[in-house]
Structure formats: structure tokens, C-alpha cells
Amino acid sequence: MNRLAQLKAPALDDPDYSARFVLNGVEAIADAGGVLILPELGMLVVSDLHLEKGAAFARRGLLLPPYDTLSTLRILEAAIARHDPKIVISLGDNFHDPVGSALLPAPFREKIAAMARGREWIWINGNHDPDGIADLPGISADEIVFGGLTFRHEPSLIAGKGEVSGHLHPCATVRRREKSVRRPCFATDGQRLLMPAFGVMTGGLDLRHRAFAGLFDRAELVAHLLGRDRIYSVRFANLLG
Asked: Cα angle vertex 32, ends 213, 66, to 5°?
């Protein structure tokens, strides 16, 4: 899927490019570019950037193409330019390993600084980067409560109402034109939301996997799948197993 092409799509009022829903009383927009927009809060939320994943693998002797950070930042840059949020929250696993932010090359550091200029930037700590970020704009936190919503990296079985989280990289599979199609997705039952992974080198976990058990009211669960140029909203019962 060409994520850069997606971000040349129409504005938010295009009924296909985004999906609007209410999350614990807060208006929310799932954008086909892979970001969540909360208009009332002036906020853009993104999850699981996994920046410097290629570099992390190289440090362990496994060579991958070294272009993932630049590609991910370009896509995020385009999303921020389109939406111009006051606040950006990145929901953990911002970097693929604990030293990724400290070793981030200067051109990428400057790109992030330019995106953050004039807005508040919050880095949620993830399991890949539990100690926060080094020498980058913004603040780090394990979780943030804002506007009736709780932003954390890993979903909680205990406190899920109003939760926005990532970590599990949800995907869903549907049948389209006689073929099964698997896409990253936003997953929500109106009480909590799981974000798709944003990084260009991230995998995904099917929404029917046991790791999602107990997180949602499946009767209300909707997967908002990221298409090439639109969102496809499908109820859980209609997803392929």
C-alpha cells in the first residue's frame, strides 16, 4: 500500500477518506493516512512509529534497507501539514530500541524539530523505548489523561473506558472482489480505541487473535481499515476469520 499516495487524498470532509465516530463522548476521526484526529482537542495521535528499526537491526548484525525512518517521517510530516494540530501524541514504540533516539542522525532530528515547532508534542513510552526520548522536542510520559481520554501504549484489561492505545498493531481481513484483503485498522467499540501501527516497517496482528480477547464489546466493535485512498469501516462480525 502506497502510504505517501494516501496522504494526497481529499480533505477531512470527504466521506470515504475518513471515518467519524464518538469515542467515550469525544468526536474522533480515523484518517486513511493512519492518524487519529480529535477535532475538539486540536490533537493528532499516531502510534508505533518504530523509528530507526533498520538501524536497530543493523546493530545486531541483521541488515535491512536503511530508509524506514525517512519514509515514516515523511508520511507523518504530510499528515501534520494537512491537519495542523495543536497537540501531537505519539503512543509509544516511538523508536525500535532504547538507544534509537539518542543515536538518531541529525537530519532526522531536525525534521522532528520542524514538525514540533509551534505545537505541543507528547511521547508516550512504549515497551521498545521505556526510558523515553533523548534530545528531542516535547515531553515523555507513561500515559496522559486529556479531555476524557487516556493515552497509553499498551491496552489495559482493567481500565479501558476512554482508552487510546497501540502496541498490538491491529489488522483485519475482508473479502473484496472475490479476494481476501488484509489491512491495518483502527479498532473501536466506542469505549476504547486501538491504533494501527504507523511505521513503514511494522507488521500487524489480526483483530481475531487471542491477544485482543476481552478488550472490546465485539457486538459494537468496528474495524476502520486503511485502504489505498479511503477508509473501509467493517463490523467485527463481517471480518474474515
From this structure: 90
Distance set, CA 6 to CA 78, 193, 194, 229 (Å): 10, 22, 21, 5
Each residue's pLDDT tens digit, 91-137: 999 999 989 999 999 999 999 999 999 999 999 999 999 999 999 99
The Cα–Cα gap between 216 and 160 comes to: 9
CB of 30 within 8 A of CB of 224?
Answer: yes
Where b means 16+ CB within 10 Å and e means fewer, 185-222 reads bbbbbbbbbbbbbbbbbbebbbbbeeebeebbeeeebb
CB 156 within 8 A of CB 128: no
Calpha distance 7→72 (Å, rounded): 12
Contact 223, 170 (CB under 8 A): yes
Model pTM?
0.91
Query: How far is 11 from 63, CA to CA, in rounded Å?
Result: 38
- Tell me whether strands 205-206 and 170-176 are parallel, antiparallel or unpaired: parallel
Q: CA Rg, the chain, in Å?
A: 17
Place of cell 457486538: 219
Contact 51, 37 (CB under 8 A): no
Give the pairing type, strands 170-176 and 179-188.
Answer: antiparallel
Q: Counting Cβ atoms within 10 Å, is residue 90 exposed (0-12), middle (13-18) or buried (19+)? A: buried
